[in-house]
Amino acid sequence: MSYQARYAVTDPLRSNVDRMGGVVVLEFGAPWCGHCQAAQPALRDALQAHPDITHIKIEDGKGKPLGRSFGVRLWPTVIVLEQGTEIARAVRPVGEQDLSPVTRALSAQAGIAPV
Fold first, then answer.
1. Nearest CA-CA partner of 25 in 4, 50, 46, 56
2. Closest residue by Cα to residue 90 from 80, 81, 78
3. What DSSP assignment string belongs to 52-69?
4. Spatial separation of the C-alpha atoms in residues 11 and 56, rounded to whole Å
5. Distance CA 52, CA 97 (A)
6. Residue 64 in contact with residue 28, Cβ under 8 Å?
7. What tens-digit pLDDT sequence spans the chain (115 residues)?
8. What's the order of all strands across the beta sheet hosting 77-82?
9. What are the boundaries of each domain within the chain?
10. Residue 62: which residues within 8 A CB-CB, separation 6 or more?
11. Is the bond preceding residue 76 a cis peptide, omega within 30 degrees?
12. Superfamily for the 1-84 domain
């Protein structure tokens, strides 16, 4: 599974996220968020280059414990996990350069030299 255009119907539990194997990208945001919408082209391009990763798009907001458990304060926040451990984070990315921590981590996990 690669880039997911739609938000997950149900949010995963933190304990389930922590147990996920491999590389997982969590994207916290909201469908009405202008910053989230603006980030989609760059995020889609970055994730489509790595079709083997899991991308979970999570609608965040008041009463949503998963975002709080990861310390999410601004949207979008993109977090890369490997075997449940955070290895990269991008907060409010707008373009490719803002996503560089994420793309570097994904490339490193795939054994691709950074550009």
1. 56
2. 78
3. TSEEEEEE--TT-HHHHH
4. 9
5. 22
6. no
7. 689 999 998 999 999 999 999 999 999 999 999 999 999 999 999 999 899 999 999 999 998 999 999 999 999 999 999 999 999 999 999 989 999 999 999 999 877 655 4
8. 54-59, 23-29, 77-82, 85-91
9. 1-84
10. none
11. yes
12. Glutaredoxin (3.40.30.10)
Answer whether 19's CB lies under 8 Å from 84's CB.
yes
Token code pair at residue 100: 């560089």
Q: Which residue type sits at 74?
A: L
Burial string for 54-89 (b: 16+ CB within 10 Å, else e) reads bbbbbbbeeeeebbeebebeebbbbbbbbeeeebbb
